[in-house]
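Explain this one:

_____
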Amino acid sequence: MTTTEPVLVIGAGVIGLSTAVVLAESGVPVRIRTDERSAETTSAVAGAMWGPALLQPADRVQTWVTDTYRRLVELAADDTSGVHLAAGRMAARIDLGDQLPPEALLLPDLRRCTPDELPDGFLSGYRATVPLIDMPRYLDHLTARFLAAGGELLLSPVSSLTEAVEEASRVVNCTGVGAHELVGDPGVRPVRGQHVIVRNPGITDYFVEIGPGTEPTAYMPHGDRVVLGSVAFEQDWSRTPEREITAAILRRCADVEPLLAGAEVLGEAVGLRPGRDAIRLESERFGGTVVHNYGHSGCGVALSWGCAAEAAELVLSG
């Protein structure tokens, strides 16, 4: 279904851009309004990789993450997309057991780590090839696709849903943690993340610590740079990098991969992940059709295409 009236998408992070691309490439006129350029959003500072998303609603999340995996694998064939397939390890300091999320079975080379493949202090893990996403390049790729499909991108904050539906009768709210104020959703909370970007000393494999804890060790190579992380501090709205956190991230990553010891630091980045007990992807009547697509916590990239397709369907059928 198409419409000649523009659809307004609020937000230009990975969720907003993906939704806008799906709509625009299906022939729908789309305008994005955002208070931050894509390069300034939380999406831009993500690691980022595809992986299982242990969020609610679980049945819909499985569909979204599966759809997104397939799209990212396709994009990895395009050298300009910022997506590439990389081998690596997902390890834990506890015994993970044999039960895996269903979407993990999408990975054709998934296998248990042997004891000698686990860093000191880690008890179990898996090796697999997954999509890694160089977010600055990827957001540029999505923006270029959106504009090529006739989309309009405005650096113009939206102060309320009332303002949005006065501009367009069909709106998609992809404001991430900004939904806390825009729609008055008290369930949305910031989950502060900090990353360190270093010059790549020759790393091709990724490493991600899984399991409980607020300071997981991770590093993800993207060509000549590596993104190291991270922390996950809830209810912290600060977007200023902290020197002590940077030092701890560098130390933890070097403990796992000695090549990172002394790596040249190129920058630090902080983002506010939109935490919520359940992802909100639903339509409501509010002087028009408003589709909410937010609350993806730290899994926005891994869910983006699946959520975008469903959001587009909702806004066009509403």
Observations:
- The chain has one domain: 7-317.
- The radius of gyration is 19 Å.
